[in-house]
Amino acid sequence: MKPKSVKIRRSVVKQMYQLIFLVLLLLSINTSYSIAQVSHTTDVYMNIAEVIEVLQWPTEIYTLSDGAIPGVPIVSQILTIKVRSNTIWGITIASDQDNGFLREYDNTGAFYIGDGKTTTSPLEWSVSPVGPWLSLSSTPTALITGEGPTGDTGKEISFYFRFTPSFDDEKLSGESRTYKVSITYTVGVGY
Amino acid sequence: MRLSFISKKDWLICFIALIIVLFNTSVFGEESGGVLIVPARLEAIFNYDGSIPSLYVINNSNSKIDLEVSYGWGTHDLYGQPRYLDSSNHQALIIVYPSSFTLNSKEIMEVKVSVNPSDQPMYPVIFFDFISQGDMARKAVRIAVPLLLTPSGFPEGEGVITHCWLERKGKSLIVNLIFANPNMAHVRSGGKVMIVHKESGISFDIDIPKQIILPGAQRLVSIEWYSEESIRPGIYLLEIVGFPVQTVMPKFIVDVFHKIHIYSSAAPKLIDVK
Question: What ipTM was predicted for this assembly?
Answer without folding.
Answer: 0.75
